[in-house]
Amino acid sequence: AQSVTQPDIHITVSEGASLELRCNYSYGATPYLFWYVQSPGQGLQLLLKYFSGDTLVQGIKGFEAEFKRSQSSFNLRKPSVHWSDAAEYFCAVVTAYGGSQGNLIFGKGTKLSVKP
Amino acid sequence: ETGVTQTPRHLVMGMTNKKSLKCEQHLGHNAMYWYKQSAKKPLELMFVYSLEERVENNSVPSRFSPECPNSSHLFLHLHTLQPEDSALYLCASSPAGQGADNTGELFFGEGSRLTVL
């Protein structure tokens, strides 16, 4: 069965430090991959997405992610974290293309805390 | 502003009450979703409507009753809930069909925080 694993439940980084959030997926074909961010008390906002082409994708708020097929990974990175980046981050994969069958599978999320 | 609006943002209800959550999208999408987000659990898909027809119901208890009167509106009717139903309920929308616009990306509202006493 398709799945998404985010191995880190909670990460704390200092403001200005670099960040990498891990995501591994299990899916036979080339997936569509997403990273969403959720600030406290808010809904989910799309940070970036990968469909095909360049394996390094740029998103909003200075985030980027790299798709590595050989490792079944889609890790999220940011070179310098800001205090406003404190939030929960969700990796997701689409398990079927087209249609509207609710085929977006989410990981359990990684909560990011930022130290001053 | 995400284009998906949920009301109310917060709701407290007793176990015998009947209430409804409302979701409205202004994105021209034809598919709408209800998700449940509980503490320490992954997002749970509850219901999917595509072109106003329900296409998926992930074994959700009957005390949750969805309604999709048109492609822009989605309701979740609640009755005789249990304390374990306390959660953040998220509505989302996406384009329906097989077109290039439909990549599986969902557009979320800000959620309705439900507390059942």
Structure description:
The complex is a heterodimer of chains A (116) and B (117). Chain A has 116 residues and is mainly β. Helix content of chain A is 0%, strand content 51%. Chain A has strands spanning 3-5, 10-14, 19-21, 24-26, 32-38, 44-50, 56-58, 64-68, 73-78, 87-94, 104-106, 110-115. In chain A, the strands form 3 sheets. In chain A, strands 2, 5, 6, 10, 11 and 12 form a 6-stranded mixed beta sheet that branches. A 4-stranded antiparallel beta sheet of chain A has the order 3-9-8-7, with no helix packed on it. In chain A, strands 1-4 form a two-stranded antiparallel sheet. In chain A, a hairpin with a 5-residue loop joins strand 7 and strand 8 (64-68). The termini of chain A are far apart. The mean pLDDT of chain A is 89. Chain B has 117 residues and is an all-beta fold. Helices cover 0% and strands 55% of the residues of chain B. The A-B interface holds A 32, 34, 36, 41-46, 49, 51, 90, 94, 96-104, 106-109 and B 2, 4, 6, 30-31, 33, 41-43, 45, 48, 50, 55-56, 90, 92, 94-99, 102-111, 113.
Q: What is the element layout, followed by pairings?
A:
The complex is a heterodimer of chains A (116) and B (117).
Chain A: E1 3-5, E2 10-14, E3 19-21, E4 24-26, E5 32-38, E6 44-50, E7 56-58, E8 64-68, E9 73-78, E10 87-94, E11 104-106, E12 110-115
Parallel strand pairs in A: 2-12
Antiparallel strand pairs in A: 1-4, 3-9, 5-6, 5-10, 7-8, 8-9, 10-11, 10-12
Chain B: E1 4-7, E2 10-13, E3 18-25, E4 31-37, E5 44-50, E6 53-57, E7 64-70, E8 73-79, E9 87-94, E10 107-108, E11 112-116
Parallel strand pairs in B: 2-11
Antiparallel strand pairs in B: 1-3, 3-8, 4-5, 4-9, 5-6, 7-8, 9-10, 9-11
